[in-house]
Every structure is written in C-alpha cells, then in structure tokens.
Design brief:
Layout (H helix, E strand, L loop, with lengths): L7 H27 L3 H7 L2 E2 L2 E2 H40 L1 H34 L3 E3 L6 E3 H6 L2 H7 L4 H12 L9 H7 L4 H18 L1
Antiparallel strand pairs: 1-2, 3-4
Helix pairs in contact: 1-3, 3-4, 7-9
C-alpha cells in the first residue's frame, strides 16, 4: 500500500529515472546495431562515443535490468491510477479507448515483425544462408565464408593465387586487402555492402580463372 500512495516527488523521481535509462538504452542499442561482429570490432579497434563493443554490450545489459526494476516500481506506484483511467475511458469514450488499445497492439506487433525481418536478414548474412553466385560460375561466396575465411584461405579454396586476387581486387574494384585479413574485416575496412562484396569476390576469382 505504501507504494500505491507514493508522494508526487517520488513519482517524479521514478519518471525521471525511467526517461534517463530509456535514453541510455536507446543510445547503447544504436551503438550495438552499428557495431561489426565481435571479432571484427576487436580487430579494427571499433569504438562508438569512445567506448568499445564489449563496454556497450555490458552497459546495455545492465541498463536493461535497471529498466526492468524501474518499470516494475512505476507500475506498482501507478497501477491504481492506470486502472481508474482505463475504467473512465471505457465509460466516457469506449470506442476511442478500444481503438487506442488496438492501435497500440498493432504498432507493437508491427514493430516485432519489422525487427524480426531486419535481424533475420542480418543473421542470414552472418550465418551463411545468403550467398552470391555469378551466372554460369562455380564460385559461391557465403556469409559464413566472410566471417571465418581469410583472403588467403578463400584463394586456396578456389585454387587461385592469392597475390593475383589481391591485385585484381585493388585494380578492378579499388579494394585494399591483405592475404591474412579476414574477409569480413576487408568488407568493413573498405566500407562495402555485404552482397556487393560477395559479388566482387566471385567476379575477381572468375576473372583470374579465365585468364589462367
């Protein structure tokens, strides 16, 4: 009962804390969305606002638990007020209240599917379900290759000289690469779109094969 009859100053503190934590979670979420995969972030020394990926990950996790606690207190403190307002809404403007609840449900459902589509696309890139294949070519570059192969390993997999592959990538596509670099690191370093990079690699390997 003490929580439900909390004074105004306490409610204000809870609202302020909720706002601050929400803003920080939004920032950390953006940082993690922009960050490359863990191994690449470490290799490149990636940072956002001066913090590395591990720090942002830990911060996002801690803030998430803090948000759970603050929201729980917020609900306990304002539960009676919420129920009262909903009852009043149904009595005075039942249709508007129902429409509002339906819209909120639709927005949350739509957000869930959009999030699933975006993260699903990213997962397919990173786990290798997506691939780039040049027509009439046996060269196939998958997401898992980008994540785990160095340029030298890719060259050996398709039996082409790695020095020629480095040269073709540089001369024909303006891509800076070293034989011992991970493909994903080359992608990030050169600011390339993943699917485009897959196509460039496949084309470069095919060019070397045709000129052999």
């Amino acid at each position: 009962m003490m929580w439900k009859s909390a004074p105004a100053w306490f409610r204000g503190i809870i609202d302020l804390a909720l706002s601050v934590v929400f803003a920080l979670i939004a920032i950390s979420g953006i940082a993690l969305y922009l960050a490359p995969s863990g191994r690449i972030a470490e290799t490149l020394g990636w940072t956002f606002l001066g913090l590395n990926k591990d720090t942002w990950t830990n911060l996002h996790t801690y803030l998430g638990f803090a948000m759970i606690g603050i929201v729980a207190i917020h609900l306990i403190v304002g539960f009676n007020s919420m129920i009262t307002m909903l009852k009043m809404g149904f009595k005075k403007a039942k249709k508007k209240t129902v429409v509002g609840l339906v819209l909120m449900t639709l927005i949350m459902t739509g957000g869930y599917f959009v999030f699933g589509a975006l993260t699903g696309e990213g997962e397919s890139d990173h786990e290798g379900t997506g691939s780039a294949v040049i027509s009439n070519s046996s060269v196939e570059i998958t997401g898992s290759m980008l994540k785990s192969y160095t340029l030298d390993q890719l060259a050996k997999a398709y039996d082409v000289p790695v020095d020629k592959l480095v040269a073709v990538l540089k001369s024909d596509y303006g891509i800076e690469a070293q034989p011992d670099e991970l493909l994903e690191a080359i992608e990030v370093k050169n600011g390339l779109d993943r699917e485009v990079f897959k196509e460039y690699l496949a084309e470069a390997i095919e060019k070397i094969r045709n000129n052999s």
